[in-house]
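Researcher: Final request for today, and then I'll write up notes for the group meeting. The sequence and the SMILES for flavin mononucleotide follow.
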Amino acid sequence: MSTIDKKSEKINEIILITECEDGTPHIAPFGIRERDGLILIAPFRPSTSLDNLLSGRRATVNATDDVRVFAGALTGRRNWLVEDRVGALILQSTLSYQSLKLEKVEDDVQRPKLYFSKLKEEMLKPFQGFNRAQAAVVELSVLVSRLHMLSIEKITSEMEYLSITIKKTASDNELEAWSWLVEAVENHRTQLLGNNIA
Ligand SMILES: Cc1cc2nc3c(=O)[nH]c(=O)nc-3n(C[C@H](O)[C@H](O)[C@H](O)COP(=O)(O)O)c2cc1C
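Model: Predicted protein-flavin mononucleotide complex:
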C-alpha cells in the first residue's frame, strides 16, 4: 500500500464571487485553505478574480452544492443570479458564505498568495451530506480547467472512471453540469484532431 508523503493542508473547493470595476459580479471556482486563522487564495496569473481581489472591492466565498456553478464557470456559463446581502455577494444555492477583507499579499510572478480575514460569516442552508456525483463533477471541472496541460488520454480515462459515479448517484443538476464538461472535453478532442490533420 502506498503512503502519502505530504504535510496535509485541507483545501475546500468553493465559488469565489468578486466585484469587477463596473460593479458586475465575477464567479469562479477556487480551492481555499485556512492558514494562521486567515483564508488563503492563490490564483494563477492572469486572473480576473486576482485583479478584483487586489483592488480591495467586495469578495465573498460561497459554499454551494450546486455543481453547475463550477462546471458553468469552466464552460462559459457564469450567468447566475447574485444577491447583494448587506455587502456580501451570494448565489441562490449558497449554503454558507464568508465575506472577505484582504490582509496580506505574498507576491509571485506565477501564483501570488492572498490572505483574507472574514468580515462576516453566515449559514443559510443545511449541508445535506456528501453526494458522489457532485464530487465527480468537481473533479472533472478541475480537469477541464487544465485541458491544455493534460493529455487527452488521461482526461478520457479519468472521465470514464468518474462517469460510473455519475450514472449511479447524479440528479438533474449533476447530469446537466456533467454534460457541459463532456462537451468541453469533446470540443477539445476535435480541436486536437483538427490540428493533427492540418
Ligand atoms: C474546483 C476548482 C478549483 C480551482 N482552484 C483554483 C485555484 O486555487 N487557483 C487558480 O488559479 N485556479 C483555480 N481553478 C481554476 C479557475 O477557476 C479558473 O482558471 C478561473 O477561470 C479563474 O480565472 P478568472 O479569475 O480569470 O476567472 C479551479 C477550478 C476548479 C474547478
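Model: The longest helix spans residues 172-197. Residues 132-197 form a domain with the Methane Monooxygenase Hydroxylase; Chain G, domain 1 fold (CATH 1.20.58).
Researcher: Thanks, that's everything.
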